[in-house]
Amino acid sequence: LAERVQSAIEKIARKGRIDKETLEKGLREIKLALLEADVNYKIVSDFIKDVREKALGAEVVKGVNPAQQLVKIVYDELVEALGGEAAKLDLKGKPAVILLIGLQGSGKTTTAAKLGAYLKKQGKKVLLTSADVYRPAAMLQLKKLGDKIGVPVFLMEEEKDAVKIAEKALEKAKSEGYDVLIIDTAGRLHIDEELLDEARRIRERVNPNETLFVIDSMTGQESVNIAKAFNDAVGMTGIILTKMDSDARGGVALSVKGVTGKPIKFAGTGEKIEDFEPFHPDRVASRILGMGDIVSLVEKAQEVIDEKKALSLQEKILSGEFTLEDFREQLRMIRKLGPLHQILSMIPGLGSQKMLKQLQQVIDEKKLKRIEAIIDSMTPEERRNHAIINASRKRRIARGSGTTVKEVDELLRQFAQAKMAMKQMRKMQKKLAKKGGRF
Ligand code: GDP
Ligand code: MG
């Protein structure tokens, strides 16, 4: 998908401005791409209509080329279509009940444990239960996960009625003062009337606060039908998208959200318990587009710093001639720009959590001032070539900045890490450039 969107945008970029004919061509490409990514056709049509209106009405912002502007319009529409802000859980009542439904293999049992650990961390007293009466191994799987995260698991291994298990678990949760009860259910490999009916009966009987539909982000074209079947037969209050660590682009998010109209509340991002987070529409939108929000970065930068500085810094990052002097300049800009995580998420190529974390470590907001002081205490030569900073120079710099040699060392190490991260970005940019684009 990313490639298609990119190539569509590149075509427009070459023209220099968005004329109607080029725009229509680009939109056609984007439409095909979204359809290919399993987005429901009606959602795609509405989406394209909105983008068209906005693109035609948009004034060309100085310093941003029309292609970048179209990216921003497409991006904003995607974020909106994916649901704006990350949705919260309804945890009213004692216990609040959360029912997980979905096909076998979608990740329900894993998600039950992830959600349990997530809520436990927020200080909630959580009880897990498995209403999967078809596979003894499923109960055992949940039990193991529960033990691992230190959350009790209520099981009735001999019981063959899933509704009864859910009822008994609710009784126990009530009488023992649990805050949250999470009910894992059975799944089949395909939509199955008996299974849907069982889930519906559980829902009717325990009246959960949340019925969360769990779906694998690699499901593909079928996702629309599966989501619709569960929504019609059982009903749901929200969606959890699993396996976002796969190379699936996230088209499933758009299509499931679109066909059910229900908010996507969480995303599973790996097999481990902690690979779980509130769903961020903005991140998935970036991912569907396959690039960070370069336009926002440029625009925001324009607001607080002059365009020339921003561009020259960008060029330096891209060319690899990045020195401590530029690093200091960048730190100053970042301080002016606002919340760090927001800025980082806008830099193209930083889509991956790993790299974000890496950079966040490098640039800890609280440390920024001390780092600036250290760099201030260097000679211009040292700033341009950090390799010459030996032990005696480090001592002098530490004295001059009122810090320690250890802190100077750490800064140099972090700077090296930042350069590495930029190198990775550059590689990505080169790869894209080879395909003929600007991004
Ligand atoms: P269930 O049949 O719906 O209960 O699915 P399971 O919870 O048993 O998960 C099926 C498989 O998917 C297991 O191997 C899980 O480890 C894996 N899985 C679940 N969530 C994720 C995720 O977010 N990322 C990855 N990579 N694997 C996941
Ligand atoms: Mg299971």
Description:
The chain has 439 residues and is α/β, with parallel strands linked by helices. It folds into three domains: 2-82, SRP54, nucleotide-binding domain (Four Helix Bundle (Hemerythrin (Met), subunit A)); 96-288, Rossmann fold; 294-434, 434 Repressor (Amino-terminal Domain). Helices cover 59% and strands 9% of the residues. The protein has 20 helices and eight strands. The protein has an eight-stranded mixed sheet, with helices on both faces. Helix 1 packs antiparallel against helix 2 (20-36), helix 3 packs across helix 4 and helix 7 runs parallel beside helix 8 (193-206). The radius of gyration is 26 Å and the shape is flat. The structure holds guanosine-5'-diphosphate and magnesium ion. Guanosine-5'-diphosphate binds next to helix 5.
Strand order of the largest sheet: 3-2-4-1-5-6-7-8
The count of DSSP E runs of length 2 or more, i.e. the number of strands, is 8
- Give the cofactors and ligands: guanosine-5'-diphosphate, magnesium ion
Overall structural domain count: 3
* Outline type: flat
CATH-derived architecture of the largest domain: 3-Layer(aba) Sandwich
Structural class: alpha/beta
The fraction of residues assigned to DSSP E strands is: 5-15%
Q: Helical amount among residues, as a percent range?
A: 55-70%
Quaternary organization: single chain
What's the level 1 CATH class of the largest domain?
A: Alpha Beta
Would you give the CATH topology of the largest domain?
Rossmann fold
